[in-house]
Amino acid sequence: DVKVTQSSRYLVKRTGEKVFLECVQDMDHENMFWYRQDPGLGLRLIYFSYDVKMKEKGDIPEGYSVSREKKERFSLILESASTNQTSMYLCASSQSGSLNYGYTFGSGTRLTVV
Amino acid sequence: QQQVKQSPQSLIVQKGGISIINCAYENTAFDYFPWYQQFPGKGPALLIAIRPDVSEKKEGRFTISFNKSAKQFSLHIMDSQPGDSATYFCAANIPGTALIFGKGTTLSVSS
Question: How far are the Cα atoms of A46, A47, A51, A82 from residue B20, in angstroms, in the given order?
Answer without folding.
Answer: 29, 31, 38, 38
